[in-house]
C-alpha cells in the first residue's frame, strides 16, 4: 500500500508541485532577471518552426526530386539522386529524414544553445538515472494501462490507416511489413526522435524555467507539446494533455526524462506492431527482395 499511495492524485500531483515550487527563486527589486526561460522559449519556437517547414518527408521528396531533375538535365554530374528516387529505399529515407530533423530540432540545436548561449551543462537537463529506477514501477504500470487502450483502438479503421507512419500503401509496397530491415531501421529512427522530444520538452524546457515558474513550467510546456499532436487521432491528442502533465510532473520530481522516454518508446513500438498485425502482418524476411 505504501507504493500505491504515491499514485493518489493529491500526492502524485499536488504534493509534487508544491515540492517543485520550493526551487523557485524569490523575485524582488534587487533580483537578477532570469533570462533562461526567455532564451529557451524563443529558440524553442524557432526550432519548432524549422522542423515544421523544412523537416517533413514532403520536403525530402521536393529536395531530392529537384536534385534528380538537375542530374537528368545535365546541370549536375552523376546519377545518385536519380537512382535513389526510383530505388526501393526512397520512402524509408523520407521518413528517416523526418525523424532526423526531430533529432536536430529537439536535441542537437538545443544542446548548442545550452553550451554556447546559456552556458549550462547538458547533463543537468534532467538526465539523471537515479529517479528513473526508483519510479520505474510507475512507468511500467502506466504503459500497461496504455497497452490495453492500444489493443482496443487497434481494431478501429483510423488507427490502422495512420500507424505505422512508414507503412505500405496501395501504390508502394515499401513499409515496416516488407522486411525486418525496414522495421528495425524505421523503429530506430522513430525512437531517436522520441528521445529528442523528451529532452526538448521534459528536459531543456522544464529545467530552464523551473527557477522562475516552478511547477507552472509544466503547464507552459503542455501547450506546444499538445500542438505537435495536431493531425493525429482526436483521442490521442486529448491523451497527450494528461500524459504531458503526468510525465512533466515526474520529470521535475525525479529530475529524469528517462521514464518518459521508456513509456513513449514502448507505446510507440506497440502501436506500430498492433497496426501491422491488423493489416499486413509482421515481416517474414529480414531483407526486402530486389527492385
Can you walk through the features of this model?
By secondary structure, the protein is mainly α. The protein has one domain (34-278). Helix 3 packs across helix 5, helix 5 runs parallel beside helix 9 and helix 10 (216-227) packs antiparallel against helix 11 (234-254). It has twelve helices and no strands.
Taking the sheet with the most strands, its summary is: none
| Number of E strands | 0
Structural class: mainly alpha
Number of domains: 1
C-alpha Rg, in Å? 21 Å
- Name the shape in a single word: globular
Mean pLDDT: 90
What is the percent of helical residues?
A: 55-70%
Number of helical stretches of at least 4 residues? 12
How do the SSEs run, as a string of H and E?
HHHHHHHHHHHH
β-strand percent reads under 5%
List its salient traits.
291 residues, mainly alpha, 12 helices
Q: What can be said about this structure in brief?
A:
The protein has twelve helices and no strands. It has 291 residues and is an all-alpha fold.
Write the layout of secondary structure elements.
Layout: H1 9-21, H2 36-54, H3 57-72, H4 80-85, H5 90-116, H6 130-134, H7 136-153, H8 157-160, H9 180-213, H10 216-227, H11 234-254, H12 258-278
Amino acid at each position: 500500500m505504501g507504493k500505491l499511495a504515491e499514485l493518489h492524485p493529491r500526492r502524485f500531483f499536488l504534493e509534487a508541485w508544491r515540492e517543485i515550487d520550493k526551487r523557485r527563486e524569490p523575485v524582488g527589486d534587487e533580483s537578477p532577471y532570469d533570462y533562461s526561460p526567455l532564451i529557451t522559449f524563443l529558440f524553442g519556437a524557432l526550432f519548432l518552426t524549422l522542423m515544421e517547414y523544412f523537416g517533413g518527408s514532403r520536403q525530402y521528396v521536393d529536395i531530392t526530386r529537384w536534385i534528380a531533375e538537375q542530374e537528368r538535365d545535365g546541370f549536375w554530374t552523376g546519377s545518385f539522386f536519380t537512382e535513389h528516387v526510383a530505388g526501393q529505399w526512397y520512402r524509408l529515407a523520407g521518413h528517416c529524414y523526418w525523424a532526423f530533423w526531430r533529432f536536430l530540432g529537439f536535441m542537437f540545436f538545443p544542446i548548442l544553445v545550452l553550451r554556447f548561449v546559456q552556458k549550462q551543462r547538458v547533463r543537468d537537463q534532467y538526465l539523471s538515472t537515479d529517479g528513473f529506477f526508483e519510479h520505474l514501477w510507475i512507468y511500467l504500470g502506466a504503459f500497461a494501462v496504455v497497452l490495453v487502450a492500444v489493443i482496443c483502438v487497434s481494431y478501429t479503421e483510423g488507427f490502422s490507416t495512420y500507424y505505422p507512419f512508414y507503412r505500405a500503401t496501395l501504390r508502394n509496397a515499401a513499409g515496416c511489413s516488407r522486411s525486418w530491415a525496414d522495421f528495425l531501421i524505421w523503429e530506430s529512427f522513430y525512437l531517436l526522435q522520441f528521445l529528442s522530444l523528451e529532452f526538448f520538452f521534459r528536459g531543456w524546457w522544464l529545467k530552464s524555467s523551473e527557477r522562475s515558474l516552478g511547477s507552472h513550467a509544466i503547464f507552459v510546456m503542455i501547450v506546444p507539446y499538445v500542438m505537435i499532436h495536431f493531425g493525429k487521432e482526436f483521442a490521442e491528442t486529448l491523451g497527450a494533455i494528461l500524459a504531458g502533465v503526468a510525465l512533466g510532473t515526474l520529470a521535475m520530481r525525479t529530475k529524469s526524462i528517462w521514464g518518459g522516454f521508456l513509456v513513449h518508446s514502448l507505446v510507440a513500438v506497440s502501436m506500430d506492431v498492433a497496426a501491422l498485425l491488423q493489416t499486413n502482418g509482421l515481416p517474414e524476411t529480414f531483407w526486402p527482395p530486389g527492385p
